[in-house]
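Fold it.
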Amino acid sequence: MSFDIKTLMMLYVLINIIGVGAIAIIWSQNHKRFGGITYWLADMICQTVGILLIIMHGAIPDIVLILGSNSLILIGDVVLLIGLEIFVGKKIARVFKSLLIIAAVCVLTYFTVVLPNITNREILISSVLIIISFRGSWLLLHTVSPAFIKFTRITGIVRQ
């Protein structure tokens, strides 16, 4: 059985929509008990809209598609990291995350408008996602209290 990329992306969108629904249920039941869950929901929405923009290739201008989808995916990952920080009660400087996203969007814009280069865009996006994922894993595996790590260990390992 063979799938084309459009079919795989549509399946990915469906999985993300199910994820948004699941997180929305968790949010509705627990957002008053646990801080940060609202950020998890916002991340899932950003990821889903970002992927939807990619699927709309040909229906919207490429600059909107490239900058919008990639920016939403990066911003969603940062929003998830902020939500995890709030959830575990640790604050990491938000200035770094803000500067990282601003710099990434500026460089992404450069490699989209000024010097179009998909390879450099892929390297940039992958690098930023690795940095954010590493910070999230470090948060969940190394900065939480020993009593709390039993709740964060699996998520920290998966986040890597």
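Residues 5-159 form one domain.
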